[in-house]
Give the backbone structure.
Amino acid sequence: MHPAIARALLTAPLALAPTFAFAHTGVSEAHDALHGFIHPLGGLDHVLAMVAVGIFAAQLGGRALWLVPASFLLAMAAGGALGMAGVQVPLAETAIALSVVALGAVICLKTSLPVAGAMALVAGAAIFHGFAHGAEMPDTMSGFAYGLGFVAATALLHAAGVALGLAVDHVGAANPGRILRGAGGIIALVGVAVLVGYLAQ
């Protein structure tokens, strides 16, 4: 197995460590962390965006492999804090759908952004995703435990996207670039469909 793929797959379980740690601190915190972990997995728009961040990072390669996902995680945590605090972020759902379109498009077009530009792009998207997670947290839950849960799930999805992007590039496919670009196109189209659904409501 290619070393970069192995590293990506090995980091995925580590991302879950904060969630598992709560098993020793009480049923409530463990439940809150588990609830936070499950939350990002319940929406197709969130899952696609987070996997797309990993694929985009794999396309860029080099330092982007960890800097791009890390910038998403940090910005998403900040957005989650805003949501938990009750701060209003207008048109958040529309922005989330647009982020799926944008991330799919940069993969499809194989946009060669500088690392700083890619970090800024995903961080901008992450604010809205984090806000949605935080705003939907039940009042009875621990914000810290819940937040660690959805950050862990997001890190796992990023790792899956990175691993997918690197694997396609190293399995000997006839045209790996076309495969990833096609995946980006599908992600963007799904994002358009989600966006139309939001606007039609």
